[in-house]
């Protein structure tokens, strides 16, 4: 399986990368870790004429945690996320989710930026970012803007990113100390995309839930963050009755296609089960 | 077709070439450099037979373009033996514990296990299994592969003489 021919470009700075992207328009494609794009190129489902390699743009690297905010450079790999002790201390959901992605070799190459930017509904990090209330930094010829992860995904492979913009970083508000979190993913085997998965972040005040966010992976054209799922927990003790309501809301929000991973009803049901498990595990992890 | 110059270090030797940008690293290693230890298996980044070490990471060389490895330091199975030509602990482990039958997956298994042991000198059996979860073997059922990595870890940690 040999990809089609293309010209290769290796910009050394963000501005240079934006200039190339603007110049080549539809014929140009960015490559980050390449573990979604290269397989597509081998199948000739992607046939870019110009490949713009972001691997040498240093400003896209690194994890910075300052007070209220975590900033992760787009070229940070899944392996880097897993290996960052300070990130695990501040926002442990990211390691838990990263460890469910692909396999060790792929995680050394696959980047957080590529995972959230390419719009593949099977990717795990978009729902995780929605549950965390993250936003994405987009840099283009007319400057820089931020878009909330919850508003970024429009349809499968269609996002709020313009063709001449580069997703340069992800900003995550530092979750409250002692918050509960979980990513539950049902998959057929190591490395597979989810049959259904759920990300949960919640906080408790005394015995009462004062915030909850739930988002679902791979049960629709986009990741699904449904306000109703989280709201059904807020103000409750997250008892069985409240969890049942959230699970019902998750099933109702899920709109999976039937595919190799199972029929539609099964996958919607699985979304509910994953949401229920994730809520329970998040609750058990709350530290007061 | 335009060619692009690439330079990298492979098994300690500086190499360079003029390559089509679409040339995959696995083909550069096998066809340009004659290093046929890394195998072409699934070609879809699932099986791990093409795994090599690149700048301290294990990667599937079927899913990386040679041009992306510009300036990198790469180790393949051909670079794994000790300087005096004797087998490394991992290679010895795969031999002693029958960690292979047909041998097709073995170069990838050893290169991945090598990086795993660099990052975790004494992994549990579970950690070995998860650490090798990107490498498929259709012969052994994995048990002896886990034992082979365990053998190498024991040896590297000074817990074991050569096998009986």
Q: How would you portray this structure in words?
A:
- The complex is a heterodimer of chains A (288) and B (164).
- By secondary structure, chain A is an alpha+beta fold.
- The longest helix of chain A is centred in the last third of the chain and has 22 residues, at 264-285.
- Chain A has three domains: 7-53, Uridine Diphospho-n-acetylenolpyruvylglucosamine Reductase, domain 2 (2-Layer Sandwich), CATH 3.30.43.10; 63-173, Uridine Diphospho-n-acetylenolpyruvylglucosamine Reductase, domain 3; 180-285, Enolase-like, domain 1 (2-Layer Sandwich).
- Chain A contains eleven helices and 14 strands.
- Chain A is globular.
- In chain A, a hairpin with a 6-residue loop joins strand 13 (208-217) and strand 14.
- The longest helix of chain B is centred in the C-terminal third of the chain and has 14 residues, at 106-119.
- With 164 residues, chain B is an alpha+beta fold.
- Chain B contains five helices and five strands.
- In chain B, strands 2-1-5-3-4 form a five-stranded mixed sheet, sandwiched between helices.
- Chain B folds into two domains: 4-79, Ubiquitin-like (UB roll); 89-156, [2Fe-2S]-binding domain (DNA polymerase, domain 1, Orthogonal Bundle).
- In chain B, helix 2 (89-96) packs across helix 5 (143-156).
- The A-B interface holds A 1-8, 10, 31, 34-35, 38-39, 41-42, 51, 53, 55, 79, 102-106, 108-109, 190-191 and B 1-2, 4, 20-22, 24, 43-46, 48, 51, 57-60, 63-65, 67-68, 70, 112, 116, 130-131, 133-134.
Task: For the structure shown, list the relevant keywords.
heterodimer, A: 288 residues, alpha+beta, Uridine Diphospho-n-acetylenolpyruvylglucosamine Reductase, domain 2, Uridine Diphospho-n-acetylenolpyruvylglucosamine Reductase, domain 3, Enolase-like, domain 1, 5-stranded antiparallel sheet, 4-stranded antiparallel sheet, 11 helices, 14 strands, 26% strand, globular, B: 164 residues, Ubiquitin-like (UB roll), DNA polymerase, domain 1, 2 domains, 5-stranded mixed sheet
